[in-house]
């Protein structure tokens, strides 16, 4: 009888450990997704300052600046699968803006613009890092959910796989900047 109780206790502890590990990974994936949102919010906040600085120094580049504003607004309002596409469109639009700036030495020399450009580039790097971290955590969670015996515990407690952050095939190509 004591042996049966000991075996049940060991199995219960093992299930609890697996469950806690799955929950920790799930929460870590949610935190990683929130980190992406934080960096995206930072980018959204920086873009109006960048646009105003560029607008003051290069008023004749309205089309590019309007494209950045439009892409920012679309990215802020996008949800679900459209969000990835909208974010990637914003990234491409910002690259075009920075490429156009290369033609304007006074703008490149402007301290405010240089600082904003640095902050935005830093934010883009942080967004990429956050996306990579998110995918790493999600991959660990999804692997754990698929492995035996944790898959039994995951099914028992309805712990579902998370979706990796992916881009579309068209977004994998290198953008061409044309003047």
- Taking pLDDT < 50 over at least 5 consecutive residues as the criterion, the unreliable ranges are 175-179
What is the number of strand segments? Answer: 0
The largest pleated sheet is described as: none
How helix-rich are the residues, as a percent range? over 70%
The protein's oligomeric status is single chain
Q: Which secondary-structure class do the elements indicate? A: mainly alpha
Tell me about this structure.
By secondary structure, the chain is mostly helical. The chain contains 6 helices and no strands. 79% of the residues lie in helices and 0% in strands. Helix 1 packs antiparallel against helix 5. It is elongated, with a radius of gyration of 23 Å. The chain starts with a helix and ends in a 23-residue tail after the last helix.
Chart the SSEs and their pairings.
Blueprint (H helix, E strand, L loop, with lengths): L1 H56 L4 H16 L3 H21 L3 H5 L1 H36 L3 H7 L23
Summarize the structure.
With about 180 residues, the chain is an all-alpha fold.
Describe the structure using short key phrases.
179 residues, mainly alpha, 0% strand
